[in-house]
Structures are given as C-alpha cells and as structure tokens.
Design goal:
two-stranded antiparallel sheet, 190 residues, Arc Repressor Mutant, subunit A, 8 helices, mainly alpha, 2 strands, 2 domains
Length: 190
C-alpha cells in the first residue's frame, strides 16, 4: 500500500512538473505574440505610409511567398514524454521562475530610445505626445526626477503623467525604473 502511494505521489509530481513547463511555454508564447503583433502593426503603418514602394518594384519581378504550416498529426507525443526525465523536472522546478526579458541596450540618442518605446504605447495621439515629453525630460535628466519636477518640466497633467510613468514601468522590459530616495525618483532604464 505504501509503495502504491509513493508511486502515486511521484506521478503527481511529474504531472505538476509538466504543467509548470507548459505554463512557462504559454507565457513565452504570449510574450512572443505581443512582440509579433507590435511588429505587424509597425509594418502595416509603414506600408500604408509608403505607397510609392509598389511603384518602384519592377513589373517582371516574381515575388513568391511560402507559407509555413505546422501539422500536429505527425508528432508522436509518447516519444516526447520519454525524453524528459523526472530528475530534470525536479531540478527545474527548484530554480527561480525564468522569464525572457530583453534588456534595453544603451542608446545614444533620444530618437533611438523613442522608436523602441513607441511600439508598446497605445495609438492615442495625446497619450503618445505626453509620453514623448516625459521620456525626453527623463532623457535630459539621467539621474532621475520626481513626479512633481516631471510635471513642472513637461506641463503634463498629474494623473496623465502618473498613468504614463506606470505604463512605462510595468512594460516588459521596463523602460522606466522607480527608485525611492526620500521620494520616488523616476529614471530611464538604460
């Protein structure tokens, strides 16, 4: 009886390990889909702005597009289960949760930073204008500023400034970091 309970316990641990791996893969897939959506929107915006690109293509150019299709009918799921050992699952589950975070590389100009940030902002023109003012102010003061100073320098309303800063902080990767030194100081995460 005791052996059966131990086997059952091991099976539950294996199931938990595999579910954790599936959750990690799902999180990574959601992150990838977000990035891909931003890329597609940028390409769509660029293609709608650049109408003359179609005129510049030669008429005799043969453009073909291949589609990549994923078929799950040819996958043998039983062989996939055997490739993962239980000891690896236990070892992975003890590690901290690993997430893929892109670090913002050090940019030399405000425009390079802005082109990276704008992909993650809503399409609202007023929101983007306020965000640009805030990013520009933080770029000029790399040691960081308090909310009051940012509001004073940019002229953005307090609630909009805080909303924009929170959006930039909660992004993955965060574009702005928040540090507490007698007051909250916001700075670009370079």
């Amino acid at each position: 009886m005791q052996e059966k309970l131990q086997k059952l316990n091991l099976l539950f641990q294996e199931i938990k390990c595999k579910l954790t791996k599936i959750q990690n893969i799902t999180t990574d897939l959601k992150h990838f889909n977000t990035k891909m959506n931003a890329l597609l929107q940028a390409l769509d915006a660029y293609s709608s702005e650049d109408k003359q690109a179609e005129i510049l293509l030669p008429e005799n150019l043969d453009v073909s597009v291949e589609r990549l299709e994923l078929s799950t009918s040819n996958i043998d799921f039983t062989s996939l289960n055997n490739n993962i050992s239980f000891s690896e699952c236990l070892y992975d589950s003890k590690k901290e949760k690993s997430t893929i975070k892109q670090q913002i590389t050090k940019k030399s100009t405000l425009e390079e930073i802005w082109t990276e940030i704008i992909l993650f902002l809503p399409d609202n023109k007023l929101y983007r204008t306020n965000a640009y003012k805030i990013v520009k102010c933080l770029y000029e003061n790399r040691n960081g500023l308090t909310v009051e100073i940012i509001i004073k320098n940019t002229g953005v309303a307090k609630y909009r400034c805080i909303d924009t800063l929170n959006h930039l902080i909660k992004n993955d990767p965060p574009f702005v970091k928040k540090v507490f030194e007698k007051a909250f100081i916001y700075m670009l995460n370079l």
